[in-house]
Amino acid sequence: MTNSLSATDISASLSEAGPFQILEYALGEHDNIALSFSGAEDVVLVHMASQIKPGVQVFCLDTGRLHPETYQFIEQVRKTYDIRLELLFPDTEQVQKLVSQKGLYSFYEDDHQECCGIRKVGPLRQKLLTLDAWVTGQRKDQSPNTRAEIPVVQVDRVFSRPGELLMKYNPLANWSSKQVWDYIRLEDMPHNALHAKGFISIGCEPCTRAVLPGEHERAGRWWWEEATKKECGLHASNIEK
Amino acid sequence: MKITLVKKILSDGSPCKKCADVIAKLEASGQMARIDEVLVADERDSESPGIQLAKKYSVDRAPFFIVERPDTAPEIYTVYMKFVKEVFEQETEETDELKEIMKDNQDLDFL
């Protein structure tokens, strides 16, 4: 089994590799692996993975609050690529309890953690407990605060099964938004119609908005919340010395 | 079984609020007595014991717990609710655990 030390070695050896090579490695290394697809520009990973491993497992988190354009795009992707696409839904009781107690827009009054926890993290965890590895579309340039140091391969300790290690691959970590979009255009891939309406980062409808030219993509998500520093992170500059 | 808790001191010298919250919960429940060792990860000191352990186990957040049992690899827990549920067999509300995960793992906002 891959351990945390070898994950660091693998990440170092793949740090200069492109997304396709990283995906090739991940899909070759693990049989029980799935891609997380958000319904946005991470379609590039679906595009690549379906070429490397036809019938590859892909999952989407359907929070029940996505834009119509996102649902249409997910369906288009399902029909376009040779993949096994699974939609994951939140626990009905937890959603009902939240909505009964706090209404449909509680995230505007406190913060988005509780709603995201129920609608996204819960079903994600259920899925990840069944896997040995997963693939995300995370990129360093998406958020200077929270993603500046993401490696291409890491051990996912949050969602690992007891006594086991879940591997997490981030093949787009070192790509910029421009590189992603150049690739989407080059390969003439389908994309979410919201992008043409000024949306960059796409999540749930109430928590996502279009951004102005020059604004960072994170300005389009949870804009009513103050940016806070990453309290729980240990600075890698210290860890890596 | 040996349990080690690693708590953090921020680069400006202030204590980590989440670490203090976790220790307060452990003390209130009487579970602090089951923690064998508390080490500090001082962001100002790359040689501090907690930073060294974070490096050894590729952990990028604090607080975290290391659970060592004979003849098995150490288990690392970065989610407090998961730790008390699996190690102390404490009953927890799943929604509280999910909220903690979301709050402490801001990189999950890509979902």
What does this structure look like?
The complex is a heterodimer of chains A (241) and B (111). By secondary structure, chain A is an alpha/beta fold. Chain A has a single domain, classed as Rossmann fold, CATH 3.40.50.620. Chain A is built from 8 helices and 6 strands, in the order ααβαβαβααβββαα. A 6-stranded mixed β-sheet of chain A has the order 3-2-1-4-6-5, sandwiched between helices. In chain A, α2 crosses α3 (43-52). The longest helix of chain A has 16 residues, at 113-128. Chain A is globular, with a radius of gyration of 18 Å. By secondary structure, chain B is of the alpha+beta class. Chain B has one domain (2-110): Glutaredoxin (3-Layer(aba) Sandwich), CATH 3.40.30. Chain B contains 4 helices and 4 strands. Chain B has helices spanning 17-28, 49-56, 80-86, 94-104, and strands at 2-9, 37-42, 64-68, 75-77. A 4-stranded mixed β-sheet of chain B has the order 2-1-3-4. The longest helix of chain B has 12 residues, at 17-28. The chains are: A alpha/beta (241), B alpha+beta (111). At the A-B interface, α1, α5, α6 and α8 of A face α2, β4 and α4 of B.
**Order of SSEs of chain B, N→C?**
EHEHEEHH
Give the helix tally of chain A: 8
Which sequence of strands runs across the widest sheet of chain B? 2-1-3-4
Corresponding CATH architecture of chain A = 3-Layer(aba) Sandwich
Q: Which homologous superfamily in CATH is the superfamily of chain A?
A: HUPs
The 3D shape of chain A can be described as globular
What is the mean predicted local confidence, pLDDT of chain B?
91
Radius of gyration of chain B: 14 Å
Distance between the amino and carboxyl termini of chain A: 27 Å
Task: Predict the CATH topology of chain A.
Answer: Rossmann fold
In angstroms, what separates the terminal alpha carbons of chain B?
36 Å
**Biggest interface between protein chains, with counts per chain?**
A-B, 52 and 42 residues
Top-tier CATH class of chain A: Alpha Beta
Oligomer: heterodimer
Largest sheet of chain B: 4 strands, mixed
Beta content of chain B: 15-25%
Structural class of chain A: alpha/beta
What is the strand content of chain A? 5-15%
